[in-house]
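Sample 3 of the quickstart, ligand glutamic acid:
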Amino acid sequence: MQSQNYNKTEDGVRVRFAPSPTGYLHIGGARTAIYNWLFAKKHNGVFILRIEDTDVERSTTDSIQGIIEGLSWLGIDWDEGPYFQSKYIEEHKNAAMQLVESGHAYKCFCTREELDVKRKASLAAKQSVQYDRTCRRLTSETIAAKEAQGLPYVIRFKVPEQQGGICVNDAVYGPIEKQYQDIEDFVILRSDGSPLYLLSNAVDDIRDGITHVIRGQDGLANTPRQILIYEALGATCPVFAHMPLTLDLKKRKISKRTHGELVSVQFYRDHGFLPWALVNFLVLLGWHTSDDKEIFGREELIEAFSLEGIGRANSIFNYTPGDPKFFTDPKAISINSHFLRTLPIEKIAELVKDEFVKEGIWNPAYNSEKRQWFLSTLDLIRSRFHTLKDFPCLGRAYFSEDFPVDPKALKKRVLNYPNLKELMPRLADRMKQIEPWTLQTTEEVVRDFIQGLEEKPGIIINAVRTAVTGQLAGPGIFDVLVAIGKERVIKRLRRVPELFEETQK
Ligand code: GLU
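Result:
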C-alpha cells in the first residue's frame, strides 16, 4: 500500500491531531494539537484533524463536538478534515488481507481457551508469554480445511524471526531499539473482522500522507509495531516525535480522573482565559526556546517552534486540586494577565462582551455613543486583572449601580472609620460644585478638602475608593472618579453613612 496523492506543500509536511472522542478536549490533547498545528504552520504544511472514533462504545458525538469547539475557540484551525476513522474500516480490513496475501501476516485459529492454557504453562515455566506462533506454521491445506469448517480466526502480523530489531529514531527521545524477539506476533484483525486500533491508526496515517507523527509519549509503545506495518505495506515511515507527559505537583499524570474539569479547555474558557494565552501556556508545558522566553505572539511562536525544543523530562502543571489560592497554574494566570494588559483594547472589548452579557450588565451603547468611554474604562481597569471575568466582577462598579462592596472594606479601617459618616456627604457637597469634572479639578477639590481635616489623607482616599468602586485597590483615584463620572460619584459618597451602619452590625 502506498500513500495516495494528497495535497503536498513546499516542505511536504503533513501532520495530524487524532483524538479519540471519549471525553472533553483536555489540556494534554490540546497541547498535542497545538504542537502539530505549529509544526504545520512553520513548514507551510497541512494540519489534519482526524477523529479516531472506532471505539464505538466509548466515542460520543458530544465529545466530537467538544473537541471541535475547543480547537476552534483556541484558534487552532485545520486544513483538512475532520476525517472520521470509522469511515475507513473497510480499508483497514483490506490492509490486513493485503498483508496476509503478501506473506506479512497470517490467519490464527487458536481459540481463547488454547491460548489461555499456553499462557499459563509459559507463566509456570517462567518463560515468555508471547504467542508461540503455532498457526504461523500451518500449511495452506490445513488453513483451507479450517476455513472450510468455518472456524473463526484472527489475523496476526508476522514479526521477523531473524536477529535484530526495529530502531525508532524518535525526534524527541532519540534512538530507541526494540528487538524482534521481544515483539509478539500481534493481532491486527479480530475474529469478528474488526481491525485493531494499531493497524487502523497506521493505515490512516499512510492514506493521509502523514510525514510527522507528533503525539503523547504513551504512543511510543505502539511505534515499533506500527513501523513493521508501514514497512510491510511498502509505505515510507513518518518521523515520530513523542512528547513527555504532563504531571501535577504530586507527580501524578494530569488526567480527567484526578483533576476533573480543571484540565478541560472548556474550563479555561469558562474562567475568562484568552484563547491565545492558553495556547501560549500549553506550548510551554514541554517545549522551550534556548533563552526560555515565555510570551509569544502568534507569528513569533510559529517562527520559534521546533521539535528540537521539546524536552524529554515530564513537564509540571503547577497545580494540585484543592489548592485554595489558585484555580490553576500561576504561570497560566500570569500569561493570561500579560495578554489582558497588552492586547489592543478593541480586542479586549470584543472578548469581554460575552462576560458582560452573562453578568447582565451589557449596554448596547458600549458599541455606539458610549464606545469611547467603554474602551478607556476597560483600559484603565485592566492592569490589575487576571481574567476576563474580572471586568464584570471586580470592575462591576464602573458599569452598574448594583455592585458589591468588598466585605474586607467593612471590617478593616476603611469604611468603619467613625467620622466618615459625616465627612463623605460633605465631600459630596463640595464635589457638586466641580465643573468641568476632570482629573485636575477633582484632585484639587479632594486635596483641598483633606487639608482642613485631622484625618490622614489615606483614610479619606481609601474610603472614597471603596465607596465608589466597592474595591480596596484599583487605578489612581482621580482616574477612577473621572471614569465613574460626577453624578455617580456623588451618589455613592452619599451612601457611606448607610455602609457605615453595616460595619457596625
Ligand atoms: N487516538 C489516539 C489518542 O487519542 C491518538 C494516537 C496517535 O496520535 O497516534 O490517544
